[in-house]
Structures are given as C-alpha cells and as structure tokens.
Amino acid sequence: MVRRIMVFVFISTFILYACTTTPSAAPEVDHSDLSSPTPTEIAGGLPVTPECPDHFNGLTGSLEVQVLVGPAEAVGLEPTAIGEVPFAVISPSAPYILEGTNAINYESVLEEQWGTYSVFFNMDINISGECLVDTSGEQLDLIVKYSGDQLVEIEAEGFQGEYPWSGTDEIAISLPLQNGATTRGEGWQFVLHVD
Q1: Which class in CATH covers the domain with range 54-194?
Q2: C-alpha to C-alpha distance for 14 and 116, rounded to whole angstroms
C-alpha cells in the first residue's frame, strides 16, 4: 500500500514539474526594423472590359426562327415552321439594347383516301437583348419570348377530332455578331442575319 502511495506521489510530482517547465510561447520578434512591404503591381494593370463599338448604334438585322411542328412531322408533312423576326438597336449609346417582334404561321394538310389530317400552328415571338463585347468578341445576348397555339384536325370515315395546344415560354441565347451564326436546341433553331 505504501508502495502505491509512493508511486502516485512520484507520478504527480513528475507531472507537476513537467507542466511548470514547459517552454512558453515562441519569443516575440521585434519587427521595428523591418520595412513595410511594397504592393506588387501587375504589368498592364487590371483587365479592361472592351468598349462597345459605335457601329452597334443603329444596328439592324433579323433572327430566323425554325420550330419543329411535331404533329406534322409524325405523318410526313413539312416538319418545320420558319419565320423571320426583324430587330433593331433602340438605344443610341451603351448599353446597346435591341428589340424585335413578329409571328410565324404554319398550315399543312395531308389528304388521303381515308380522310384528311390538318395541322395549324401560330406563334408570336418577341426578342430583346443587348449588343456587347466580351473576351470572345462582339455578340448578342438575347431573350426570345414566345406564345403559340396549335390545332390538329382529323377527319376520317365519319370521325372528326380536334386536338388543340397552346403555351408560352422563353429561351436565353447568345450569338456572335456574325451573319449566319446559329444556335439550336430541342425542337428549335435560330440563325442570325445582320444587315
């Protein structure tokens, strides 16, 4: 028992000694003789955003719109409704804002011995956006908003059916400012024409 007490006292004394002789935090360094750092300047300075060129003022053109008409394609009729949306820059200085609007109308009829299959498609399109310059060059950033309706009529051996659809949506697109620049997605394609 005495031996255990002695071991305990020894261990306690060792721990106490170790804690009191542990070195303190690193000594303070006198920084008074150090000069303050000089800011480093990058050659050429900060990146500069290119300015919009003056020829954006008065820019006109059109956006060719091609829309897949699914019910027409299903029976072998012309599958695409095509139209042009003319646009013009409406602001005389940066930011150069452009706007345009037009409609696409499509009608096609399949006539067979069993009857007829008719597709009617109408879409109103508004485009708005901005001419700008970025690291890749001059481009148009556009929002294409559309609302449309479609009607499929089927007449066959005493049967007559009508199948309407309507909807609205918008698509954000970017095009380089070049004639023939094209972008496409599911069921649509846009081609830029600049005057």
Answers
A1: mainly beta
A2: 104
